Amino acid sequence: MKVKKILAMGIFLCTCVYLLGACGKEQPAETEKLYLGVACYNQSDTFLGELIDSLKKQVNDIGGDRFETTLALRDAVGSQRTQDDQVKELIDAGCNVLCVNLVERADPSEIIDLARENDVPIIFFNREPVPEDLMQWDKLYYVGADAKQSGKMQGELTADVIQADSQIDRNGDGKIQYVVLEGEQGHQDAIIRTENAVNTLKSKGIVLEKLSYRIANWNRAQAQNQMEQIFSQYSNKIELVLANNDDMALGAIDAYEKSNLTKSAFPVFVGIDGTDVGLQAVADGKLAGTVYNDKEGQAEAMAKLAAVLVSGEGMDKIKFENDKYIYLPYRKIVK
Ligand code: GAL
Ligand code: CA
Predict the structure, then answer these.
(1) Where are the domains of the chain?
(2) Which atom of ligand 1 sits closest to the CA of residue 145?
(3) Which pTM does this prediction carry?
(4) For residue 176, which ligand has an atom nearest its CA?
């Protein structure tokens, strides 16, 4: 009996001491939940894969004491239908911000309707919706880069490479015979990059002759295949391969390396993105240059914007273009 009393007294005293101690301390601010739903058009895309890795890291870093962060990732593997379903699932699961990399960039209406009905803001990224769609609701944003700038930079660095080496014009006709490997049809980064690269080269005084133009959908294997088809027609006549991204430039290099052409008959290859393999190819001297697509900057902008959207604080500190757009600058990379 006595023992029980002493024990009870002890527990009581301990509790008092604990409570007194707690009173003096400041209570930590309540953590907010950032539950980010990320919908990706196709994760096997090299640049996209690296961008998503970067986003995971950024979201994790932004957490700290302030946020409890969770990221749910879905891969639509090239189907808009699948992506629409995945976005619905993400919303049902309780995501409070969405990052959407549309499959069909002209077809976001279903996703926008779903998000609006549930009041979940969307940060579109990498595949830019048309302005009319972004105007459909005030909680829609876009994070990406300016396609025109990447094309221009690709043209500039290619002009520098050509002007520095007269041997690139192998047949000495004063013109550069070239082929273009283009990304997906209808993608903002395909036509605009090509147009601006070609126009910039011309404006720098390079005379061009287009031999062929192929769509290879950002994909290395498709680019290799397309290049092999071009070979039969133009074999050693090509002096420049302008590719809308690094993976397609690397696919073209794969085709040349498998051919029986000697290195001296290889054209100049240029890409865009600065993926890990792309940068390695520049370092190895296989790619004459690339244009860095700032995936870390894009990922950071997305994570920060998501945090602001959830907390409702700091919107005034984000620099938007036209209230909704965040564009990260490209930069030129040569060896
Ligand atoms: C581009 C990038 C390509 C591809 C594409 C996917 O910005 O340069 O390599 O990833 O996005 O939408
Ligand atoms: Ca020539």
Answers:
(1) 32-145+295-329, 148-292
(2) 7
(3) 0.90
(4) 2
